[in-house]
Specification:
With about 350 residues, the chain is α/β, with parallel strands linked by helices. The chain has a 6-stranded mixed β-sheet with strand order 1-2-10-7-8-9, sandwiched between helices. Strands 5-4-3-6 form a 4-stranded parallel β-sheet. The longest helix has 15 residues. The protein is globular. It starts with 7 loop residues before the first helix and ends with a helix. The structure holds pyridoxal-5'-phosphate.
């Protein structure tokens, strides 16, 4: 038992204080930092590129890192329920952690706009699921109205405990590399995660656990790029549903991170996102969800512009697992060929 990986709250206890009896964990975190081999070679990248495989968290996205702490703190504060608006992954994580703690989860999602895998998670973990006739931004307005009620805790990324927990991914990257990378690439939706990584890197830097700080490079989808455009987007539209957000909760903080780290927030279009999505699956064998591929699309776009120098270390967060949204993978692939049940029929189609 004593060698069991304990999850991020117990591993990073000094940063994540909470009463022992309130800790709820699914042993999230400790995800691999995975070196790109064939993708990096195919695109002749001059860098060392690593993917942080956050889809390998227990509910299949990085949201687990924030949710373990947010639900633990909600329990400590004697809340009866957690509530969130979600493009899918937050609701999946909230539902799972609430189930593990015996608390209620109430999730509000945009009607018809969330990936089926994510909806199925919220449902099977027993959350009360509501679909709003509107988009994510409107769903968030709805739950914010309820957040005044002391019996419920809002666990969207405006909850400070979420971001505290999410810092742990930056800690793990520094542990894996022995220092911070030169650049960190990350998809941006509500901009909570980019904020959390930057805080995490800074915390270790102040403690002398890393010598340098990365330049933070955030990527929105072109059809949902309010930070890049400088104004909210009323009807955000992108294949990357997890970052289909028109009015990010942590907007100002994303701008601060870009400025303070000497990085930037930019956009990639759906074609670039889907091309990166296929590339990482077909060249490196890792299946991420479309929103996650925005960070890889960003790396490829910047590489094309000659942005990197030889040997630089680049880390890239792959935020969620591809199985969350299998419809897109099927759309992006040739359909299976139907054959008669005979070896000869199969051979006919093969170029062996
Ligand atoms: C939540 C989420 C994002 C966006 O993260 P923010 O903190 O909202 O910027 C990106 N990808 C996936 C898979 C997500 O679930």
């Amino acid at each position: 038992m004593s060698n069991l990986y304990p999850g991020i709250i117990r591993k990073y206890r000094q940063y994540l204080p909470v009463a022992e009896a309130s800790i709820v964990t699914l042993h999230e975190g400790n995800t691999p930092l995975f070196e790109s081999v064939r993708l990096a070679k195919h695109y002749k990248l001059p860098i060392k590129l690593y993917f942080k495989l956050e889809g390998l968290n227990p509910t299949g996205s990085f949201k687990d890192r924030g949710m373990t702490y947010a639900v633990s703190k909600a329990h400590e504060a004697r809340s009866q329920a957690v509530i969130c608006a979600s493009t899918g992954n937050t609701s999946a994580a909230a539902a799972a952690y609430a189930a593990r703690m015996g608390m209620k989860a109430i999730v509000v999602v945009p009607q018809g706009k969330i990936a089926l895998g994510k909806l199925s998670q919220a449902q099977i973990h027993g959350a009360q699921v509501f679909q709003v006739k509107g988009n994510f931004d409107q769903a968030l307005e709805v739950v914010k109205e309820l957040a005044e009620n002391p019996k419920v805790t809002l666990v969207n990324s405006i909850n400070p405990h979420r971001l505290m927990g999410q810092e742990s991914a930056a800690f793990e990257i520094v542990e894996s590399l022995g220092d911070a990378p030169d650049f960190h690439f990350i998809p941006v939706g509500n901009a909570g995660n980019i904020t959390a990584y930057w805080r995490g890197f800074n915390r270790l830097h102040q403690e002398g656990k890393c010598k340098s700080l990365p330049k933070m490079c955030g990527f929105q989808a072109a059809g949902a790029a309010p930070i890049v455009l400088g104004h909210p987007v009323k009807n955000p539209d992108t294949v990357a549903s997890a970052i289909r957000i028109g009015n990010p909760a942590n907007w100002q903080s994303a701008l601060d991170v870009a400025r303070d780290s000497d990085g930037f927030i930019a956009a990639v279009d759906d074609e670039e996102i889907l091309s990166a999505y296929r590339a990482v699956a077909q060249l490196d064998g890792y299946f991420c969800e479309p929103a996650s591929a925005a960070s890889i699309a960003g790396v490829l776009k910047m590489a094309k512009q000659g942005f990197f120098q030889k040997g630089q270390i680049v880390t890239c967060t792959l935020t969620g697992h591809g199985l969350k949204d299998p419809d897109i993978a099927i759309q992006q692939s040739p359909p299976p060929v139907v054959i008669e049940p005979k070896g000869a029929a199969l051979l006919e189609h093969l170029k062996l």
